[in-house]
Design a protein that fits this description.
Length: 107
């Protein structure tokens, strides 16, 4: 099991340091970072992270908007992560916790 962080900012002028700080406080094994628009899921580091996802891994994001931009995209992403028997947690959006420890994870 790995704790995997995903960090994204929309442009090179934005600073991802706050996201790094929050994820490092939890203790990540690996962090994937991108400076690209979140309008599409066709992002190199996101795809690399998802391709290498293993059973038991947990993806952490500081905010749901860092990994997805629409409800439909979120549902598709959740289905993909679950199909790999992995989890997704958002620090800001605490309701988004797909781990078995969360009684609402199937909600």
């Amino acid at each position: 099991m790995q704790k995997i962080g995903y960090i994204r900012v929309s442009s090179t002028s934005q600073n991802p340091s706050r996201q790094f700080k929050q994820l490092n406080e939890i203790g990540m094994d690996i962090i994937f970072e991108e400076k690209v628009s979140g309008a599409t899921r066709d992002r190199e580091q996101l795809q690399k992270m998802l391709e290498n996802l293993k059973e038991g891994d947990i993806i952490y994001v500081t905010d749901l908007t860092r990994i997805t931009r629409s409800t439909q995209d979120l549902f598709e992403l959740i289905d993909l992560i679950r199909s790999k028997k992995a989890s997704l947690k958002s620090i800001k959006d605490s309701w988004l916790d797909l781990s078995e420890d969360n009684p609402y994870s199937q909600f």
